[in-house]
Write a structure and sequence with these properties.
It contains 7 helices and 12 strands. With about 425 residues, the protein is α+β, with helices and mostly antiparallel strands. A hairpin with a 2-residue loop joins strand 9 and strand 10. About 5% of the residues have low confidence.
Length: about 425
């Protein structure tokens, strides 16, 4: 059911219930008020009728009477005087207001007991009910008439309110793909302003995503252009080479170029995945970080032995983190690979684990050249390298590592090696 129809039904039902209650209350209040007035009228008639001498001219002998009220006056031993002989008054009535029945009619009776006489004034309850019902109906019918009018009012009011929302929806629908400016919050109703704010935040996310994609495509094109151009040139050289030694050298250059292009493409895909995928912590597996570190060391032992680098875990600790095993492995591989890649021969790369508060801390410390403090934040930018000619790389590793760590609530930072020259990479993740 639409929001408009829901509002109309709810408001119509509410207004109908209120009008019906008001009509019923007005009806019964007016009816009771009419009875009170008629009772007071009986008392007034009893007070002004006197000894009943004026009733003789109104007496109707036998049969029923059309008199509105019936009066009977008893004075001592004198015969009773009445204006309606068809009404059989009680012989010993109680003083005040009572009821009695004679024949098929019920009567409302007021009895005034005076020392010199007894005055009784009665009125048919059917006539009283008729008068009271007329008065009550005249009081209640405006409320009943208001019920269909309230339906029209609800339909019109809801339509007017929803029109403002439709105007807002039209503005959103009319926006072009390149329009990222926020919607005006001031033009929206107060209750809808949080929704407009949320829509603006969504626009900001879309704008940021599109900007990231644009930058990503530009960077990818820039990084792939060089190895692909080199491959084209090397293939031309391979076609022109006639000597076996020249062909072998050129073929080796082609293979190196292919590896370079493959590495760049692979890192770009990893970077795109690390930026665009969101994870929910309650659906993540619990990963044993100590085991992940040991597996990472096993993968890089051969590379460390090739440069005679002392690679090992110097401080183990039991800590578990909610993270995908493949992605913690990717983060550790990037950090350890950078340490081994830039460290000189016979250097040292140490890994350690510790628990600080509610965080698991992983440190990777090397005795290499380190990174100057003013560049430690810039190395997390994509394609940034301090010295592109020093080592083979794409400049994407640390950017990927930071994106992955942030996705799982972690953080990555750089610091000096406390033991001397070199760099310490610090990874923090919340404990499971």
């Amino acid at each position: 059911m639409s929001l408009r129809r829901s509002f109309i039904l709810v408001f119509s039902a509410l207004l109908t219930a209120l009008a019906a209650f008001a009509a019923a209350f007005s009806y019964y209040s007016a009816r009771n008020e009419a009875w009170s007035i008629l009772d007071f009228q009986l008392q007034q008639i009893a007070g002004v009728v006197g000894d009943g001498s004026g009733l003789l001219r109104q007496r109707v002998p036998g049969g029923a009477s059309d008199e509105i009220v019936a009066i009977r006056i008893v004075s001592g031993d004198q015969p009773a005087v009445t204006n309606d002989v068809s009404v059989q008054f009680p012989e010993k009535p109680s003083p005040g207001l009572t009821t009695f029945r004679t024949g098929s009619d019920e009567w409302r009776l007021f009895t005034d007991l005076l020392p010199e006489r007894t005055v009784m004034v009665a009125q048919r309850t059917s006539e009283r009910d008729e008068l009271a019902a007329d008065a009550a109906w005249n009081s209640a019918w405006p409320f009943l008439l208001a019920i269909p009018l309230s339906w029209l009012a609800a339909y019109w009011l809801v339509g007017a309110i929803m029109e403002r929302l439709q105007s807002l929806a039209a503005k959103v629908e009319a926006r072009g793909i390149d329009e990222h400016h926020p919607l005006s919050v001031d033009d929206a109703p107060l209750e809808v302003q949080p929704l407009v704010t949320a829509i603006n935040r969504a626009f900001d996310k879309v704008r940021l995503t599109l900007e990231q994609q644009r930058i990503f495509l530009a960077d990818a094109a820039h990084e792939l252009r060089t190895p692909l151009a080199a491959l084209t040139l090397q293939i031309d050289n391979l076609k022109q080479a006639t000597k076996p030694d020249d062909k072998a050298a050129t073929l080796a250059e082609v293979e190196a170029g292919l590896r370079r292009a493959t590495q760049v493409a692979t890192q770009l895909l990893k970077l795109a995945r690390s930026e665009n995928v969101e994870q929910r912590a309650d659906f993540l597996p619990v990963c044993d970080i100590e085991l992940a570190v040991q597996e990472c060391l096993a993968r890089f032992l051969a590379q460390a032995d090739a440069k005679d680098i002392d690679l090992g875990l110097v401080q183990p600790a039991q800590c578990k983190v909610r993270i995908e095993p493949l992605e913690i492995a990717a983060i550790l591989d990037i950090v350890v690979d950078n340490a081994l890649r830039y460290a000189p021969e016979h250097a040292t790369v140490d890994l350690s684990l510790s628990v600080e508060g509610r965080a698991c801390v992983i440190t990777v410390t090397d005795s290499g050249p380190g990174i100057p403090e003013e560049f430690r934040e810039r190395v997390f930018d994509r394609f940034f390298r301090l010295d592109p000619s020093q080592a083979d790389g794409t400049g994407l590793g640390l950017a990927i590592a930071r994106n992955l760590a942030t996705r799982y609530g972690g953080a990555i930072s750089l610091d000096d090696n406390p033991a001397g020259s070199g760099l310490r990479v610090i990874l923090r993740f919340p404990l499971a």
